[in-house]
Amino acid sequence: xxxxxxxxxxxxxxxxxxxxxxxxxxxxxxxxxxxxxxxxxxxxxxxxxxxxxxxxxxxxxxxxxxxxxxxxxxxxxxxxxxxxxxxxxxxxxxxxxxxxxxxxxxxxxxxxxxxxxxxxxxxxxxxxxxxx
Length: 132
Known about the structure:
Blueprint: E1 2-3, H1 6-37, H2 41-62, H3 69-92, H4 99-124, E2 127-128
Antiparallel strand pairs: 1-2
């Protein structure tokens, strides 16, 4: 267990907050967003549902006085993979979003990448938790 630095705690909390907003947007607005972004409605909706679970986990992790380093690493690696996967989705040709859809995917990928970086730096600043 580690005592999270303020940077790590805030990065986890901000990740949960922003991901929560995205979860609501995608889960509740997939039908309206799909034609505007030229992205498949099931992709948007299912991503929103996944993010609901992610937000619960990351929000919980960000609220702890001591956290498991492997769980923090799981979040960081997950965010890196999400960023790379978002870029790969655009390159793969599996979807054909319009310019607004491409921008949407790229901007959220950048945001997730920034969270991964902040969490990584915050993890490096965290100290071992004291055992009583």
